[in-house]
Amino acid sequence: MRKLLIVDPSLLSLEGHSYNYDRAIFEAAQGQFDEVVLYADRGFRDGGQHAVPCRPVLNRLPIELLRSWVNAVFHVAGRGGAAPASAQFTDATVVPGVWSWIVRLGQRLRACDLESSVRAIIAEQGGNAGDELHLLFQHSNLAELLVADRLHRAAGSMPVHLHLVLRYSPDILNARFFAAAEFASLLKRIAESTALQVHFLTDSARLSAEYRALGVRRVATLPVPVLLPVEEPAAQEGGRMDVAFLGSARVEKGFCELPALVQAMPRESGGRVVRSVVQITSDSPDPRVRATLEELRRMERALPSGTLELRASPVPMQVYYSWVRSAGIMALPYVSDKYNASTSGIFVEAICFGVPVLAPANSWMADMIEEAQRAHGLRIGEVFAALEQIPAIVACMASDLAQYRADVNRFSVIWRRTHNPESCVQALLAATTREPAFLDDPTICGS
User: Fold this and answer.
1) What pTM value is reported for the model?
2) Tens digits of residue pLDDT in 54-111
């Protein structure tokens, strides 16, 4: 039997891009594998919907306890104005001094927990000689790499394929945990495993190139497993145009720059009615985010009606999708190098729903915008080199919004031909047999 085991410790609910990607692969793999199992965190809750059968066996308790403790410290420090400059506890964030030590400890704890869970998952498969086991780490961070390095004794009598999907640049994923040479050695050691057949995967050509530069020869680029309904964008109401800033409220996504951008929009609008729609996440531990949120709330009360609308998060996915569809322009004011090579779920959603996008230069998103223009003659959005340019670019896009929308709708059809769950699963299987140069052919991966 050919079995696919999707392992995602970040899967806690039916919301977010993590669940959407897992569900897309789970459903598309049914015709390619004899058995498909999705392993989620023990705290997974689906509200009784049972949309996709999950096995909640992974244990993130130690890392979550540490995260809660750090968040509490940030909250207290933020009240006193003494929080460190980079007060976020995430896998891809570098923080100085003692915070760096906490992050390293958290990675070790997470890796130990995950390793124990994965060994149990492999053991329960029984090791039948005729079976072929595919273990998919759908969102591989440093902990997943540490586990992969330790699994050299995990394989039994059946072939085990370990698929590592790397969605961040090497420097961001490593976050100074290892010296650069040590990190490259870790990747090489994993790639040369004899007990497991390891396959390195990314979802952008930029990421694949970065990992090859570290000496990992076999890196394949997967299509983005889009699983969204085909729907027309909603009409703009009463001549007003909404500029949407959606997604979680994080510093690297430019959330702290929004007050200045919102105030500048009316000045640059050329007389058009432009409303800024901001989705907010109120439980962020970062004091900078909390301060920005309070400022935006003050602005919403003080500015003329229709200038700014704050929308609470989280919300059900169908509500969120309605927000995407109702946007005139989707603005992505990202300020972190994290997004230079990584894909963006919000960008993908906007394209699929026919909404023009505004994205940072020197990014995967900018590559897609430029590819649409170069290869198909379609203007699906614009890029900015500096945040200050956003209001003026929005005004220019607003003057020709109907054409932008028509172009995005046409490109959405082209995009979905490649970026869909079935193509992603096919590329996943092809990575076990084909050379990576073939897998990076744009006609296959659209990257």
Assistant:
1) 0.84
2) 777 766 555 555 556 666 665 555 544 444 443 343 433 434 456 667 667 777 777 8
> Is 109 in a helix, a strand, or coil?
helix
Q: Mind giving me the DSSP string for 370-419?
A: HHHHHHH----EEEESSGGGHHHHHHHHHTTHHHHHHHHHHHHHHHHHHS
Kindly state the average pLDDT of the residues 172-183. 87
The residues near 384 (Cβ < 8 Å, ≥ 6 apart) are 333, 358, 359, 360, 361, 390, 393
Question: How far is Cα 218 from Cα 155, in angstroms, rounded to an integer?
Answer: 21
Q: Which domains does the chain have, with CATH numbers?
A: 2-227+420-445 (3.40.50.11930), 237-418 (3.40.50.2000)
Report the share of the chain in percent with pLDDT over 90: 44
Tell me 307's DSSP state.
S
* Neighbour-count burial for 100-139, b at 16+ CB within 10 Å, e otherwise: bebbeebbbbbbbbbbebbeebbeebeeeeebbbbbbbbb
Distance CA 276, CA 335 (A): 19
Q: What SS3 state is found at 163? A: strand
Q: What is the pLDDT of residues 205-221, one digit of tens each?
A: 999 999 999 988 889 99
